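Anyone up for a design puzzle?
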């Protein structure tokens, strides 16, 4: 039995026995989510919570001034940023901004892998956000929210983290990064679903993390998972990009794939990416 198969077996066994170590949500994201769910929280209270983390605070201000919110008057304080973003949205945006803290490792090889995975994920996110904004502009439909697609696309690869953490303990496997790709491809959906449940995220996120790679999972209406798939296809993060784009085309999300090759689209995508820079 090869080392690869052995590790794959270990992983599957741990998933089945619920003994795989899942990442925990960064503390600041937990705090923000808990506060957002408090019926008595107000904008000032939320601004205080966000303000406890200077880096999150700075990024919140940056995001509320970003072109993708389409505002010209600059905000300068956390309270103004929270007011502009809105209480409901802050929960997802803060979580999204805190996610980067999870993609770290002390092992040199894993560290590189994690850094690349974060960059790749941001590519998916930026393309997914731009695809959704493009769809909304063309269709006039506003039932899907930008903060939700941002976080949905960000958790698309979350199931890969425990695979990498596990591999860290079996250094010998790193002679072969292709193994990691196979393990991530095969297992990350299932693990991603487990992480979302563990974090008590709602069904939208569970579904995206668990099923976006599985093309047999198609819902009749247009949902967040469609935009995660478009994002992954446009970011060249999947082998079956054409298939994913065809699903979206058949659902009427776009008329011609050329809409994603315009300078306008590139601009929206780059604005979205700059939030995470």
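Challenge accepted. My sequence:
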């Amino acid at each position: 039995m090869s080392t690869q198969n052995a590790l794959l077996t270990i992983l599957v066994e741990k998933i089945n026995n619920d003994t795989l170590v899942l990442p925990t949500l960064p503390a600041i994201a937990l705090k923000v989510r808990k506060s957002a769910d408090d019926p008595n929280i107000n904008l000032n209270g939320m601004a205080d919570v966000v303000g406890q983390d200077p880096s999150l605070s700075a990024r919140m201000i940056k995001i509320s001034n970003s072109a993708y919110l389409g505002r010209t008057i600059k905000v300068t304080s956390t309270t103004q940023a929270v007011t502009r973003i809105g209480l409901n949205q802050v929960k997802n945006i803060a979580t999204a901004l805190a996610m980067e803290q999870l993609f770290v490792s002390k092992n040199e090889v894993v560290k590189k892998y994690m850094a690349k995975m974060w960059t790749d994920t941001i590519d998916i996110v930026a393309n997914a956000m731009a695809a959704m904004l493009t769809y909304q502009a063309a269709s006039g439909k506003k039932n899907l929210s930008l903060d939700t697609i941002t976080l949905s696309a960000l958790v698309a690869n979350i199931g890969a983290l425990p695979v990498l953490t596990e591999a860290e303990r079996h250094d010998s496997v790193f002679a072969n990064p292709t193994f990691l790709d196979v393990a991530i491809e095969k297992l990350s959906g299932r693990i991603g679903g487990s992480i979302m449940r563990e974090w008590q995220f709602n069904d939208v996120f569970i579904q995206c993390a668990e099923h976006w790679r599985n093309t047999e999972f198609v819902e009749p209406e247009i949902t967040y998972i469609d935009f995660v798939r478009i994002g992954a296809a446009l970011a060249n993060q999947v082998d079956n990009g054409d298939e994913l784009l065809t699903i979206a085309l058949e659902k009427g999300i776009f008329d011609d794939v050329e809409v994603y090759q315009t300078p306008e689209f590139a601009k929206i995508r780059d604005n979205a990416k700059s939030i995470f820079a």
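A detail worth pointing out: The radius of gyration is 19 Å.
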